Amino acid sequence: MSLRRRMYLNESADISSEDVIDILAQQRGNSEREREDIARWVVSKNFKLTTVHVWLPDLGVTAGKTGETRSEGKPIIVDDNVRQVARFQGSFGAAPDFLVLDGQNRVIKAREKGHRTEIDAYVGDKIFNRLKEKDKKFGDVFVELQNTIDEYLSGRSGFALGSLKRAVERGLMTQDELDKLRAKWKAKHDS
Q1: Cβ neighbours of residue 185 under 8 Å, at least 6 residues apart?
Q2: What's the total number of domains in the chain?
Q3: Residue 82, phi then psi, degrees to nearest 5
Q4: How many CA atoms lie within 13 A of 13 on its CB side?
Q5: Is residue 36 part of a domain?
Q6: Residue range 98-147, pLDDT digits in tens
Q7: Rounded to the nearest 5 degrees, what angle is found at the Cα of 44, between the Cα atoms of 27 and 98?
Q8: Same structural domain for residues 66 and 7?
Q9: Residue 39: which CATH number?
Q10: Whether the Cβ atoms of residue 50 and residue 131 lie closer than 8 Å to each other
Q11: Which range marks the domain in which residue 14 is found?
């Protein structure tokens, strides 16, 4: 159910840290853990319902997930990455600012499908303003990427292809997506 639909139905736009701990306790890997151990991952007291881009680089998702999701359609839960996990580029890279506490498989699936959309998320009050500011800047990057794609397909810019190659390197689009754009350009301009 979308955020707009949920708000229309007057469902709560906030949940507490206790609600988050309850949700985390139901995760497969947490069934044997003590509640206090789970609570160490939760920094914020309240979590506000909003949306975030699934490709936001500072959105930490740990590798090695099962690929199964038992809560399809529910908002993900994001909080401060106090444990400094989900490092980029292995154990020596920088840790992301934010960590997906619940819903990592949903984020991974959306990324694998190439979605550049927003996903419903409960975001902790300790990080809410910081995350929304980064999310807005990231949304602006995707608008710029779409403009570059339009320039490339129209043939207006000779530099657009280089920009798109850099977008692949930065993880803003896949190599497959770039290959499809190149085939589209070739079909349009070779005829």
Answers
A1: 152, 153, 155
A2: 2
A3: -65, -25
A4: 12
A5: yes
A6: 888 898 888 877 777 656 677 889 999 998 998 888 888 777 777 787 78
A7: 70
A8: yes
A9: 3.90.1530
A10: no
A11: 3-127
How far is Cα 37 from Cα 16, in angstroms, rounded to an integer?
Answer: 17
The Cα–Cα gap between 163 and 170 comes to 10
CB contact burial 76-115 (16+ within 10 A = b; e otherwise): bbbbbbeeeebbeeeeeeebbbbbbbbbbbbbbebbeeee
- The encoded tokens of residue 44 equal 């914020």
Residue 56 has pLDDT above 80, yes or no: no
Summarised one tens digit per residue, pLDDT across range 137-170 is 777 777 787 788 888 888 876 788 888 888 887 7
Query: For tokens 């960590």, what's the residue?
Result: 99
DSSP letter at 111?
H
pTM of the shown model: 0.68
